[in-house]
Amino acid sequence: MSNFTHFNEEGRAKMVDVSAKPDTVRTAIAHSSIVVNPVVYDQIRHNQNKKGDVLAVAQVAGIMAAKKTWEIIPMCHPIPLKGIDISFEWDVKDETYELLISVSVKTKGSTGVEMEALTAASVTALTIYDMCKAVDKGMKIGQTYLIEKTGGVSSPDYRREG
Amino acid sequence: MSNFTHFNEEGRAKMVDVSAKPDTVRTAIAHSSIVVNPVVYDQIRHNQNKKGDVLAVAQVAGIMAAKKTWEIIPMCHPIPLKGIDISFEWDVKDETYELLISVSVKTKGSTGVEMEALTAASVTALTIYDMCKAVDKGMKIGQTYLIEKTGGVSSPDYRREG
Amino acid sequence: MSNFTHFNEEGRAKMVDVSAKPDTVRTAIAHSSIVVNPVVYDQIRHNQNKKGDVLAVAQVAGIMAAKKTWEIIPMCHPIPLKGIDISFEWDVKDETYELLISVSVKTKGSTGVEMEALTAASVTALTIYDMCKAVDKGMKIGQTYLIEKTGGVSSPDYRREG
Amino acid sequence: MSNFTHFNEEGRAKMVDVSAKPDTVRTAIAHSSIVVNPVVYDQIRHNQNKKGDVLAVAQVAGIMAAKKTWEIIPMCHPIPLKGIDISFEWDVKDETYELLISVSVKTKGSTGVEMEALTAASVTALTIYDMCKAVDKGMKIGQTYLIEKTGGVSSPDYRREG
Amino acid sequence: MSNFTHFNEEGRAKMVDVSAKPDTVRTAIAHSSIVVNPVVYDQIRHNQNKKGDVLAVAQVAGIMAAKKTWEIIPMCHPIPLKGIDISFEWDVKDETYELLISVSVKTKGSTGVEMEALTAASVTALTIYDMCKAVDKGMKIGQTYLIEKTGGVSSPDYRREG
Amino acid sequence: MSNFTHFNEEGRAKMVDVSAKPDTVRTAIAHSSIVVNPVVYDQIRHNQNKKGDVLAVAQVAGIMAAKKTWEIIPMCHPIPLKGIDISFEWDVKDETYELLISVSVKTKGSTGVEMEALTAASVTALTIYDMCKAVDKGMKIGQTYLIEKTGGVSSPDYRREG
After folding, report:
1. What is residue F12's predicted lDDT score, i.e. its pLDDT?
2. Where does A28-157 sit in CATH, by number?
């Protein structure tokens, strides 16, 4: 006699069904940062790192990671990204050198692209870390979070308040 | 003088042209299984495998593999999967412990998703094998096949008969 | 006041530490199969499938999958494979056409290669399925299992009995 | 006091925004080639290379590379390829043995597919090189270029002149 | 007449040569975290997230990302990881719910594994974000940094102070 | 009665066994090039391409492709690359603008790295093509070949003659 045991569905992972959602233009902007020491700050600004142009490499890494987000984050849906832009800004105060990273992602698809923007921001910061770790062993990647999200059908646009 | 030799097309691989097929909602359900010994059966049920929660890891592996099917199976077209769900059921009889694996995949695209469901089912079974192979060297992955397929334009829906 | 909650380790996934294991030559042989209808049997034998030479494509797919096993199976260690060989054999009896798949894998590394052999066997079968599914909707991938494993340091060689 | 330094945008990499472009059927044909010695020429024609059927393996490699172009070329947009076909032709003259490679790619998407065709052509040639390098150490991959491109919305169709 | 222009090497990216470094056992521990709202806190603790067991999925994602670090971070050397372990701890105070993430990585190779530990920590946090973003739109991934690094030949062991 | 049909081995692909080969330091240098029009020549030299710094992006792409060669070329063995360096040089004569690409790869492993150097050279050229194709539709990637190879155990060092 056969004895079947059905599992309780609770807690088991699934990639939720989004087949009913229409394709709309969607954007997301994410933020990350990295705090470095003055030597790294100078190297990056004067392009003297011996592994190469730190920000150029980091930007390529971030763009490539955005496209691969669905391979890296298990429950993310594959989305055909239409545009990716990564920009940098230095925030220097009180002997603290922080490089701010801003990633903007655009698609025309059925899910939001906040994970793509966040993943690109993280990988951009990680790549800067990798390029500079021989010079500064104490770097910290700063907070990583969503700044803005538009184009969702079921949810209103999101903008982080002040 | 130049001497051109044209090849006979026969037998050369190609990814067949599906650009004329419209995007429709399509589903597929595939089945696989794995036969384990009583020790593995107990470990899985009581979550005592030293590598981790066997079924949770296998489910993540299966979902990720479904999304990468077009990278693994050479002539498969890339398809934007919209939903993936993997469930388990034990079939215990006559001292045989068989874990049944069922994978359901959904897309809105121009080709069927049976390969995605079958690949996910196989990888789910392989992952269970990997997690448990230190305890049971005689496991066998059972038959892997399509249960159901819907949404094709040129072909009728398919359901495996009892 | 801060309130820390430590997790019970039980059930959480890890890739177990094998850094103490020496690199030795290791081999594994895995088996899979696929049952097809007579039309597919003839197409494969006479190389008349319109997607290409079925077994040639399947062999390439299996070899490439073996190398990527650590990307597909979550807790597998990355291993530098040194050799992969895939062979086929038809078993025809009583109107049943079964293509037997045998995969042999070799490495010089710190873990066994049974998962690499099994993954390659599964992907080889899945690729045959994909190449032939337009002609036969009722194919079944047969049992997939380990035939032989040698070279482990802590465990004796394994050979499946009759 | 905080001191922000804005970067000049010039020279920083981005994946340009194509979200406003409609999906249309697009095709591209690319050309590459490889010059080999007479021993390789004979091996390929009589299928006697010890690593396998050279052209069959190269064709699978080219098709798989076309699908992965957006992972290999950093600023390429991910595109759902709909069809890929690779053909070969020998050009033998004056003791020179040149294998001509032609790759045709089709999509229904918002960008052209010339990079997919060119990447597939290069990888096809590289794979032939790999299969034959034990026999001929002096092979050269020939020029690689676009032959034809159709379906762009903003740009006219392209055909290389004589 | 031909006119060659040599480039100044400065600023061009390279993967630096480590072929002279011996293989030694190396470890790294990295830290990240994510701040969530009370609803997410409860969902995770009672395993009630509708996408699945949040921490189980995140752990698998982190382990798989560690192995792929060299594919994600451009100038990282490929390293055969020997062990990966990810653990969690809640820090709850003053209405703030922060999940602390600790990743430990081990290899026997010629470079350190801090990038592997940091990448795994980031991806673990990103995956938690993805699983919970439907419930909490204001999550922030906390600082990500190296805690400890051992086994380097040319550089002393590193431990972050206080 | 069962009827087994053994296949002739001839022509079937395999990844040849290199487990008996010792790990030695090995290097390879490969060459490729791309011919562009004067507008592209000026854009690259003055870093005015709107997609970004062409050579910086191409260098990152080439380095990442070298590491993934075993995933792209089916019968290539996975090798842990130890160093990669890509350099450029302009050859301008008679209104022809040709960018020369030189890739140097180093490993400590059991097979040569000529495929890694050649693949990196091709992908570097393809990336330049992609960055500049909006401006010049007639670019051609030049010949791609091996310049030098050292460190093989069974085969003597190779250097291409003038």
Report:
1. 83
2. 3.30.70.640
